[in-house]
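Morning - S-adenosylmethionine inputs below, output right after.
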Amino acid sequence: MDVVIRYERTVLQPETWRKIPPDWGSVFGRRAPLGVEVGFGNGEFLARVAAERPDWNFVGFDVTLTCVENATRRMERAGVENVRLAMLDGRFGLRELFAEDSVGVAFVNFPCPWPKARHTKRRLFQPEFVCTLAAVLVPDGEVRLLTDVQWYAQEAREALESDGLFTVAGPRPVGDGVPATRYERKWRLEGRDIWELIAWRKARAAVWRIAEGGMPHATVNRDISWSEVEQLTGWKERWPGGAFVIREVFRGGDGQSALLRVFSTDAEFQQQYFLLLARTHYGMLVKLDGATLPFRTPAVRRSVAQVATLLYKGGS
Ligand SMILES: C[S@@+](CC[C@H](N)C(=O)[O-])C[C@H]1O[C@@H](n2cnc3c(N)ncnc32)[C@H](O)[C@@H]1O
């Protein structure tokens, strides 16, 4: 029998949620302890752990569409009902989508080690991520890391232990039972040792969340010409902690609207989206276009306000 892939059930679109963090009981249709995996790859591990713990709800984050598609198929074929997936940076997802003291376990399996010194900031176990873990995990909640890179596990240990937020065991080499993930299988075939680190939350950290509900919009009460809109192409702004750039401007076929393609960053978190400019009887409305809804972060809100300000000033 063909398997019907029900993306709408398994794949989450938290950008569209009005309330974040959400009520996870409503998202899953039942209340249960929560587990999270950051970087689920092909979803093999998540499918297995979800089957082993049917009384838990699991949320997985990965940043590539291929991973989301492959993992979704795997969950649907296996009939796994207690997993939801999101194509989202797990650092952002964990911080923005989970309340304090709400996650029982966070799994990280074979994260990219980013060995070059100039890429240190890309490694997952940075102070900000450790703070997020210490905020959202329940007391004694676990972080479980598997890696083939011993120094990486040691560095993660130091990050988790600093500030006294976690008690840590390991890294210790783990024997070769059934490989937990695709990468575990790959590295074992190459004869590499696999290292495990387990940390338990000792103290809660505070985090600053930046995504908000609501839809930023602004109106400009004057008649604006198409050439003024075109001049927005390439406009950039940078401030401590964020930036945005207007990459392209597209004119609507009706002559009454335009779309601006915008890239924004809030610290390390990048988004791409469209701003819609629509002519109205009182001038121009500037708002987010619903086709590519981003999280409403400070950089996104600022881009809306700033485009309106630029268009307004264009008349003075
Ligand atoms: C080396 S692969 C490991 C995949 C899987 N865990 C395994 O063991 O087979 C690392 C995975 O992490 C994902 N990834 C990298 N940075 C991420 C982030 N910030 N948030 C979520 N996923 C991330 C990558 O897309 C990739 O799928």
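Note: Residues 7-201 form a domain with the Rossmann fold fold (CATH 3.40.50.150).

O.
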